[in-house]
Prior knowledge:
The chain is an alpha+beta fold. The protein contains 16 helices and 18 strands. It folds into two domains: about 5-180, Creatinase/prolidase N-terminal domain (Creatine Amidinohydrolase, Chain A, domain 1), CATH 3.40.350.10; about 185-290 and about 305-535, Creatinase/methionine aminopeptidase superfamily (Creatine Amidinohydrolase), CATH 3.90.230.10. The chain has helices at about 5-20, 55-60, 95-100, 105-110, 125-135, 160, 170-180, 185-215, 240-250, 340-360, 365-385, 400-405, 430-435, 475-480, 490-500, 525-535; strands at about 30-35, 40, 45, 65-70, 85-90, 115-120, 140, 165-170, 265, 310-315, 320, 320-325, 325-330, 465-470, 470-475, 500-505, 505-510, 515-520. The strands form six sheets. A six-stranded mixed sheet has the order 6-5-4-1-7-8, sandwiched between helices. It has a three-stranded antiparallel sheet with strand order 9-10-13. The protein has a three-stranded antiparallel sheet with strand order 14-17-18. The longest helix has 29 residues, at about 185-215. One manganese (II) ion binds next to loops.
Amino acid sequence: xxxxxEHAIKTxxxxxxxxxPREQSKPQIFLLAGAVTPFRNxxxxxxxxxxxxxxxxxxxxxxxxxxxxxxxxxxxxxxxNPSSHLFIPKIGLADLMWSVPPPTINEAVEMxxxxxxxxxxxxxxxxxxxxxxxxxxxxxxxxxxxxxxPAIPSQYTALALSRNARFSDEYLLTALHCARLTKDAAExxxxxxxxxxxxxxxxxxxxVLGQGVRSAIKPGKCAGVDRPLLPGEWLIEKEAEAExxxxxxxxxxxxxxxxxxxxxxxxxxxxxxHYCCNDREFSWGPVNAQDHKNHDHLAHDDSRQLxxxxxxxxxxxxxxxxxxxxTRTMPVGNGGKFTPEARAxxxxxxxxxxxxxxxxxxxxxxxxxxxxxxxxxxxxxxxxRIFKSPQSTHSGSWNAEEAILASGVSxxxxxxxxxxxxxxxxxxxxxxxxxxxxxxxGGIELGHESFYTYLRLRLPLQEGMVVTVxxxxxxxxxxxxxxxxxxxxxxxxxxxxxxVGGVRIEDVVVITKDGYKNLTTVRSDTDWIEAVCSGxx
Length: 537
Ligand code: GLY
Ligand code: MN
Ligand code: MN
């Protein structure tokens, strides 16, 4: 069963630490509303329901329209055994007729790790009884007046307000984010499951691309003319087809929805970090003389050949409200092989990721990984001659590695953070990940300030944290515009690489006692990616 009580104790403990000392021994009550099913206007049909993450964390309850009352008091029996009272809607005739009803109370009791479950109409009395038993309690809610959290209707707060009970929305979200920052075994199991489903979906897309290269996908007689193409007859010739196959693969394994809208970007569109159109055909045209040929008749129209290009897919499904977040960049056209330029950039991003992962362990500050990635990029670009190098090994030169790092120019190619916390949400627990006042640095070396602008995690790693490791290199015209006259760049060499667009490689890892465990199972080594995408394995 989902460990909701453990989560409640962890959250109460964090909350008490946040309170002023004079409030810490008072009874603390949490009052939370779950998400309600959204309906689309003029359709009478539900839109996707997703439980509010904090509600799920404290209750394990995915019933729409539910409420939760938790009670805790430091130094009493309630501190090891807080009372948790869940309220679910009653089954109505209309629910049975139109849709799937909520569970009965008896069914819900079997499913949830809470003290007691009642129907929603019992909530006002339950609040009244709590206020009689604990007249000096503080009632904590998620931020009120925010569209991000379900509102609590006044019928459930009126009585407490009339008795001058003290409400606070100042501490609960921060306490929840602090508690959610490290994951327990049950949460890691859910994240692993989401990641393994998404890993297979990435491999499915790559293998279908490879089958296309080998002409192993036959449209069948009359397909596409007298009858629609069946899934086994689809080639992937457009971003939308890749997205459709990815989502279908997750869905057939039981995942209800994606953790975020998939990013499926071919060619130079891969330089848009959160590209959201997924609507273009891959580009077509002659394969350049120096490139590998498509060794067969790619595409159902034999006269066409795909241009060599990359296809970046950043996509991950959700499993029981827990996210995955995986990016793979694969070669399209060119017989399923990277061009020499794309291969070199791919290898460099892989090196950024490998060196990052090798360093992971509790205590390591995430800012250090960000700097490591920039340093690796600068070294790699010097090897590729995109960045100039000193003629001699004189380290004080204006174009030495340290000088280039200090200039911040690498941010034009790697503008985002190397990773973020992941859990119930993809960019999980933001308020606990990036302290406003960073007093955790402890004298570690920092790079140019631009390296940290979009870094979503700025903490030392702890055992049980789940994070993404997602370096990337991009050639975005918008990001390159300000460095077009940089003296560190050999602009002629850069030109050769710009058509690569972008490469990102992203895995999800859990920090262990002495290192990390990779929860992403789809491989990313260059030879394997090319072998699969060219259909040779
Ligand atoms: N999928 C968005 C990200 O990687 O952060
Ligand atoms: Mn990510
Ligand atoms: Mn991602």
